[in-house]
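Chapter summary example.
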Amino acid sequence: MKRPERELLGQERRRIRGVKSPGKSNRLGAFGLWGRILTVVAPVSLTAVVLASFFTPMLAVEKIEFVGNERIESVELESALSGLYDRPMTTISDDEIAKLLSGFSLIETFTSQAQPPHTLRVNIRERQPILILVRSGKNYLYDAAGVQIAATEEISKYPFLVFDGNPIESPRYSTAVKLLFSLPLETYSQVFSVEVSEALTSKLVLRKGNLTVFWGSTDEGLLKAKVLDSLLATGVKDALNIDVSSPNSPVVQYPN
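The structure predicted for these 256 residues follows.
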């Protein structure tokens, strides 16, 4: 290769080395610059919002709403939770609310819901009465778990349970509850009283005609309820007893 040609080739190589590749440019475009700014600013802003929700009145409780309470006055519930006012909602837990409401035996369960900016909503599920127990000469409503709800004079709406023990975790009490739950609503409303023996067999006394129903054990409860309904629908006028303890062969006893 001649000298002039070598010199031209060398100049061309030096020129090529001096040109920077576009992919290796260190200059930032407009989008790249804003991307770096947001990468730095966004976490800082988020942290500021979180800290503000904990330490400022931004989400502080100013109003507490109660839903679902019928027997318990909202004023009583609000008084129990009064210590939550002016507290950030992010610092209030269900465990704390449960402790504050622990004195209300009528509350079966509850859920809480924050409604920003300043409202705390508490949904109450009250215990539902299923029967009446007589205590010290007074009638009291009890729920399925054996918890006393309130004194009552509404003896036409709920059946009596002939039982003088402690209903909590009592097999006799739970047997009576299971029996009542197996009855259709219309039949349940006709029951005046329930009695459960030590052997956990039951009998009912109906309001109409003072009719006694021998129920037996809680086995086949739904079938027994259907058989009893069928017998009552066809008419058992003047009958003394109905035995559905063997639902496939019920017995109706009439006076001699």
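To summarize the output: Helices lie at 3-18, 30-55, 74-80, 94-100, 171-182, 185-188, 221-234.
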